[in-house]
What does this fold into?
Amino acid sequence: MTIGICRIELLIPGSSSLKEKRYVLSSLKSQIRSKFNCSIAEVEGNDLWQKTVLAVAVVSNESRHADQIMAKITQFIENDRRIQLLDYSTKIL
It folds into this structure.
């Protein structure tokens, strides 16, 4: 069993309140969950309007497959025009 973990730092430049941020994040997390069958949660920056950190976890039978899924998730986030990907790091356990 292999577990892939990804820490993703995001900027939501159009957000002017926590309510707007939550709306964007809720939509993004829902799309990622349904498309990639993974777990995702906001782990830092809960009280900030425009910055946040998400954690994504994927369970797979091969490390290469888990790494590919993480790469697809970060690419999916980069293509979302509502947010800006600041940084990410991936760890395979």
